Amino acid sequence: MIQVEKLTKYYGEYAAIEDVSFAVEKGEIVGFLGPNAAGKTTTMRILTGFLQPTSGKARVAGYDVVTQSLDARRRTGYLPENVPLYDDMTPRHYLRFAARINGVEGRQVNKRVEEVMEATGVTDHADVLISKLSKGYRQRVGIAQALIHNPDVLVLDEPTVGLDPNQIQEIRQLIKGLAGDHTIILSTHILREVEMLCERVVIIREGHVAAMDTPENLARSRAGAQQVKLVVRGPEREVQAKLAALPGVLRVQTAHSADGVVELEVEGEQKRDVRETLAAAVVSNGWGLQHLSEARVDLERIFREITLEEKGVAA
Ligand SMILES: Nc1ncnc2c1ncn2[C@@H]1O[C@H](COP(=O)(O)OP(=O)(O)OP(=O)(O)O)[C@@H](O)[C@H]1O
Ligand SMILES: [Mg+2]
């Protein structure tokens, strides 16, 4: 649904993005992750026809964003970084206006406006001046405006920035509900957001794609080892020594030990799941297995590693 090929944008001598390539399949939600100035907004503005690329190509819903800009834009909804709302309009009036400029057929306008207000939870503030709305409601109106012409593709530039935790939760639910019917690319700095919402992540750094995968695969392929947490009732030294000698186990460390119960952190070889080996060893030694789990994917660390790596050694 979205194809980006070697997209490059220069501002004067400065390359804001260079050779950026990725694709988003129909119905997918993809997170566009990167530090400040990485080039997220630049890429999104090109995708939505607001900016011309210096070179490279992008297609949205099969249409080239430069040579078939109008067709591409008809199928794209865009929530910009700073939503240009009209303060002296109400959401209802503003959305009617947005419907008309986005080519919604005259007779459909009112119906469509009511639908998107319902979908974004704006209906109860439909007739309040936009200048009097909270940031969260303004953001909802921004998303409603992006949805007004029922586009195939949604481009959301930091949709939850500046919202309080409750509003963030609500907007995330809203976006999640839109996936499937719509293909979504959203930019964010929030790792949790990507984990919660996105099937795949494109990590961009200094204008280049540094990594692209599911959050789980990214973590697994870069962690270098499997991390397992284990709680065993048994003699600490013996437990530690025997587990450390198992095939595939790289390292065993005691995190805590009291009353004959040992809490251990085990590192296993990459691409080898050592959980069953550990469980079998504990049981066959006659110890008690109280807990065994794989440590949670630390996407935060992966993100720091990828974005702080030296330029040129992209994964
Ligand atoms: N109109 C412009 N003229 C010159 N440079 C620009 C312009 N717009 C953006 N840039 C530069 O291009 C680079 C990428 O900016 P962009 O806004 O795409 O980053 P971003 O990833 O969206 O960052 P943020 O997370 O802060 O929103 C930055 O170094 C920025 O200063
Ligand atoms: Mg930006």
From the structure above, extract its key features:
single chain, 315 residues, alpha/beta, Rossmann fold, Alpha-Beta Plaits, 2 domains, six-stranded mixed β-sheet, binds adenosine-5'-triphosphate, binds magnesium ion
CATH superfamily of the largest domain: P-loop containing nucleotide triphosphate hydrolases
User: What is the distance, rounded to the nearest whole angstrom, between the alpha carbons of the first and last residues?
Assistant: 25 Å
Question: Can you tell me the CATH class of the largest domain?
Answer: Alpha Beta
User: β content, as a range?
Assistant: 25-35%
Structural class: alpha/beta
Radius of gyration: 25 Å
Low-confidence stretches: none
What's the CATH architecture of the largest domain?
A: 3-Layer(aba) Sandwich
Q: SSE order, as H and E?
A: EEEHEEHEHHHEHEHEEHEHEEHEH
Number of strands: 14
**CATH fold node name of the largest domain:** Rossmann fold
Helix content: 25-40%
User: How many domains would you count in the coordinates?
Assistant: 2
Give the ligands present. Answer: adenosine-5'-triphosphate, magnesium ion
* Shape, per Cα inertia axes: elongated
Q: What is the residue-averaged pLDDT?
A: 89
Question: What is the strand arrangement across the widest sheet?
Answer: 6-7-8-3-9-10
User: In DSSP terms, counting alpha (H) and pi (I) runs of 4 or more, how many helices?
Assistant: 11
